[in-house]
Amino acid sequence: MGTIEMIPLDEENLESQGCYCLRSRPNEKGYTDKNNWLTDRFSEGLKYVKLMEDGKPAGFIEYTPIEYSSRVVYGDNYLVIHCLWVNITGKGYASKLIKQCIQDAKEQNKDGVIVITNPETSWTPSKEVFIKNNFIEIEQAPYGFELLVYKFGDSPNPYFPNDWEERLMTFESLTIVRTRQCPFVEIATDNVLKAANALGITAEIIDIQTREDLLRLSPTPYGIYGVIYKNTLISYHRLTTHSAVKRLKALM
Q: Which of 1, 63, 94, 232 is the least crowded, having the fewest Cβ atoms under 10 Å away?
C-alpha cells in the first residue's frame, strides 16, 4: 500500500484540488457547475474528502447534514452520504472513507449516517460495502432504491416519502428535474434534449434551487436528476441519446 492522504476540500483549496468526478475534463460545464455548487455548500456543513494514494486520486466521499441533502429522505440530525467512489479497489479505501464520515457524525453529535443505494445503477454507492460497515437497510422505494442507516442510539429512523406515483401525475410534458450536485447531470440532460429534438418533443428543465422543492418535486429518492414524460419516469441516471429516443418513442 502506498502513502495515503485524506484531503478535505474547502473554499481555499477547491480550485487547486478540484472535485473527483470529471476531473480529466476541467473545462466541461458540468465540472465547473459542480465546483460552483460545492462552493455554495461548504457553509452548510457539506464535506467532500478526497483519498489520495501516492499523490494520485484514489477515491472520495461527499456527505452533508440531512437538512441540506440532495437526497429525498426525511429525518432529523443525520448526515447523508451523497457519493462514495474508489478507483483503486481491494485496499479497503471505501471502508476508510465511510469510517471517516461515521467519526465526523459522532464528533458533530449526530444520531447517525444515512445512505441511499440502488443495485440497478452505478450512479449510487454500492450497498454491500455499507452492510460490511454495519449499516442496516430499513426501507425501500420504487425503482430499486434502498435506505440504509448507521445509528448511534435509539433516535427515530429516517424514512422515504410514500407519494411517488402522485408526483409523476404532475408531469405530462417531457420534464427534466435536476440539481447541480452531480457533474454528469449536464451530459445526461444534453442526451435527453438531443433525443427530444430528434422526435420533435419540447422539453422543460426544472433546476431545483431549494430542499423544499426537491422534497416536493423529485420523482425518486435520488433527487438530483429525473426525466418524466406523460406521467412516466423515463430515467433517474444518464442515458445515451439512442436509449432516450427508444424510451420516449415507446410513450408517443
A: 1
3-class secondary-structure state, position 63: strand
CATH of the domain at 34: 3.40.630.30
What gap in Å lies between CA 113 and CA 147, rounded to an integer?
11
Cβ-contact 56, 23 below 8 angstroms: no
Buried b (16+ CB within 10 A) or exposed e, 174-209: bbbbbbbbbbbbbebbebbbebbeeeebebeebebe
Amino acid at 80: V
Distances from the Cα of 50 to the Cα of 72, 96, 161, angstroms: 25, 11, 32
Residue 221 lies in a domain: yes
Instruction: Write down the number of H helices and E strands in the chain.
Output: 8, 11
Say whether both 31 and 105 belong to one domain.
yes
Same domain for 104 and 183, yes or no, is no
Answer whether residue 120 is part of any domain.
Answer: no
Question: Tens of pLDDT along 221-242?
Answer: 999 999 999 999 999 999 999 9
Could you tell me if residue 40 is inside a domain?
yes
Check: pTM over 0.70? Answer yes or no.
Answer: yes
Q: How far is 43 from 77, CA to CA, in rounded Å?
A: 17
